[in-house]
Design brief:
The chain is an all-alpha fold. The protein has a single domain, classed as lambda repressor-like DNA-binding domains (434 Repressor (Amino-terminal Domain)), CATH 1.10.260.40. It is built from six helices and no strands. Helix 1 crosses helix 3 and helix 2 packs across helix 4.
């Protein structure tokens, strides 16, 4: 089941995180450097498909279930709640 790359960006923006915030979180989690460009490539399907362990970290950072990135569906409730809390539509 392919991941939905656009959902990575949508979820990141819903939480208010920057590419740099995500890169730092990945570097901390995996104890190796990650660039903003690598995160951006995953968001736009330019780079290799992120593995499940990376999708798990995205899900944790963005407070959504991992299935959100794998399914072709509308926004899950957690993303809607985050957007509402941030005053976004």
């Amino acid at each position: 089941m392919p991941y939905q790359s656009s959902k990575l960006k949508d979820a990141r923006l819903a939480t208010g995180m920057t590419l740099n915030n995500v890169a730092v979180a990945f570097a901390t989690r995996f104890q190796r450097p990650y660039s903003r460009q690598q995160i951006s490539d995953w968001e736009s399907e330019k780079g290799p498909t992120p593995g499940v362990r990376f999708l798990e970290v995205f899900a944790e950072l963005y407070h959504v279930p991992i299935t959100y990135f794998l399914e072709d569906e509308t926004e899950p409730e957690p993303v809607g709640k985050v957007k509402a809390a941030l005053g976004k539509k």
